[in-house]
Design brief:
Length: 159
């Protein structure tokens, strides 16, 4: 069954079909170095995914990083920023709006991502939505905190 894996390419989150399968293919081949692995991985990924030609070097680098983490050769980068987990209901949108307002009040630049893919939401182990994730840690689930509570959560978990 095909699955989507998300990687960061030049700061943007990009979904790649069958990436783990392609990484297993690369691992099975005797290749001289990581550059050869990155080139082969890019070519395999392009069989099922659109990669803009001008972005190929950035994709190659991102795919190599994903491969090295997948193969256990490097530790993954710690997750940073804020994520709102939810399928897009009114409460999820309310939480996303409130997060942006509080960040503005605190004058804090921060990545805010609204995660709507059920598989990614499940990966955090939350049951209720919306859920709020700060720097990779679930800090609330199943509720929209008050402005004051959210301010406290952001200040205590973002730094």
């Amino acid at each position: 069954m095909a699955e989507v894996t998300h990687i960061r390419v030049d700061g943007a989150l990009v979904g790649i079909w069958n990436l783990k399968f392609r990484m297993a293919e690369v691992k099975a081949r005797p290749l001289p170095d990581n550059r050869a692995r990155a080139r082969l991985l890019l070519e395999l990924v392009k069989e099922e995914n659109y990669v803009p030609p001008r972005s190929e070097p950035a994709y190659e680098e991102a795919l190599l990083q994903a491969y090295l983490v997948w193969d256990g050769l490097v530790q993954p980068e710690p997750e940073t920023g804020i994520k709102i987990l939810g399928l897009g209901c009114p409460r999820c949108r309310q939480l996303a709006d409130l997060v942006r307002e509080v960040l503005g009040e605190l004058d804090l630049p921060c990545d805010v991502e609204h995660v709507t893919a059920e598989s990614r939401i499940r990966s955090y182990g939350v049951i209720g939505s919306p859920a709020l994730v700060i720097n990779g840690r679930v800090v609330t689930a199943g509720q929209v905190p008050s402005r004051a509570e959210l301010r406290e959560l952001v200040q205590s978990h973002l730094f």
